[in-house]
Amino acid sequence: MTKKSKNIIEVSMGEGEVALHPYILTSAGLGSCVVAALYDTRRRIGGMAHIMIPKYSGSSNNGRYAYADMAIKKLLREMQCKGAKLPDIVAKVAGGAKMFSYDDGGESIGEQIVAGVRTHLRKKGIQVTGVDTGGSRGRSVKFYLDTGRMVVKTLGREDKVI
Amino acid sequence: MKKLKINEEELDFLKELINIGSGNAPAALEQLLNTSVVMEVPGVRIIKPAELSSLIGSLDKPVLGVKMSLVGDIKGDIFLIADDENKKALKDLAEKAAPGYGKIEPGSDMSAFEEISNIIVGVFTYSIHDFCGLNVYHTVQDSRTDVLMSLLDESIAARARGNTEFILIETLFQVDAKLKRNITVCLLLILAVDSLEVFAGSIKKVREKMLA
Questions:
Q1: Cα distance from A28 to chain B (closest Cα, Å)?
Q2: Structural domain range at position A106
Q3: What pTM, to 2 d.p., does this model score?
Q4: A161: which of B69, B141, B157, B183 is 20 to 30 A away, CA to CA?
Q5: A33 is catalytic
Q6: Nearest CA to CA, how far is A129 from chain B (Å)?
């Protein structure tokens, strides 16, 4: 469930939200999950998806925001419904850590989601202006729709602004 | 998406199995922590991530997570979670038992926590193994301290394919007979989608057999 309090909207796992300035979109406890945030720099319209799975596999109770291959499309469409224009949209991406070892070889879930998100952003011609991905620490993010800055909090590290 | 089809009575039955299966665990913990230990599993239930805050406080605060994977007839991950207060209590006990044993700084020896996890998760796997006839083992431990959901989300994606329901096994210790100090940790079981039916089916089967 997405909680709204004052100007803050919490975007939970598998969810997405689109809002306008002066809202702040937040997501806490990102491990392998990735947030993809889009921002219309002229109209100050922003959207953020909390993506948990690299690819949609056909049957699921999760919404489209849960999947890297569907989230960008849906986020973009929702933003355009609110008046955003594609040429003015930039993106920020955070998350995709590998918290524990899983003996399945190959790319981690986080790496696959980040790669999927970047592929779909590239397809839409959206420039990525900030990235904080990978590593082995969890992240929490705040995406400020007044300026489009994203503040990334990581345990044991100074806040990073992307 | 497949969901775990298990009712309240069956969860209660699982709780009883784990309580019976805890057998030698308190003795092993007593030896490890050098104090008296009474162990109890007061509840087993299905829980969603948002409900976890009622157990561990703010979801923004770091917790200790020790992850082990289940292999054999059922697959998945099982996490031992301890919030800051309970982590500190365990750390103090471990330090008291053997100085240096309770170190938890990143990169340092977390053997006390890993051994405690080994004993507690062992109770669960032995119970399932012995009572339900499932051939289940757990892998070695992997520990992190971080925000809870960041510890769980890869398992939710990789094992449960996005299903965000867990089986929560609350585990309570009363340590030190004089002080009667309570320490609570949680076991969170995230089953692989393919194992949901096997797990629920085996609990149903053994319960029906015992009730017959």
A1: 7
A2: 4-161
A3: 0.87
A4: B157
A5: yes
A6: 24
User: Residues A79-97: pLDDT tens digits?
Assistant: 999 999 999 999 999 999 9
Q: Inter-chain contact B153–A52, Cβ cutoff 8 Å?
A: yes
Q: Is A126 exposed, middle or buried (0-12, 13-18, 19+ CB in 10 A)?
A: buried
Contact between residue B14 and residue B203 where contact means Cβ atoms under 8 Å apart: yes
Strands (E) across B14-135 are located at 37-47, 62-72, 76-82
pLDDT at B94: 73
Question: Residue A58 is encoded by which pair of tokens?
Answer: 């056909």
pLDDT in tens, B26-76: 888 888 777 888 888 878 888 887 787 777 767 778 888 999 999 999 999
Chain A CB contacts of B155 under 8 Å are 100
Q: Cβ contacts of residue B73 below 8 Å, gap of 6+?
A: B134, B135, B136, B195, B198
φ and ψ at residue B50, rounded to 5 degrees: -65, -25
The residues spanned by each domain of chain B are 8-211
Q: List CB contacts (< 8 A) between A12 and chain B.
A: 49-50
Residue B150 and residue A31: Cβ atoms within 8 Å?
A: yes
- In the predicted model, what is the mean pLDDT of chain A? 91
A108 chain-B contacts, CB cut-off 8 A? 154
If one counts the domains in chain A, the total is 1
Of the residues B79, B105, B154, the best mutation for testing chain A's interface (the one with the most A CB atoms within 10 Å of its CB) is B154
CATH architecture of the domain formed by B8-211: 3-Layer(aba) Sandwich (3.40)
Q: Give the model's confidence band at B102: pLDDT under 50 very low, under 70 low, under 90 confident, else very high.
A: low
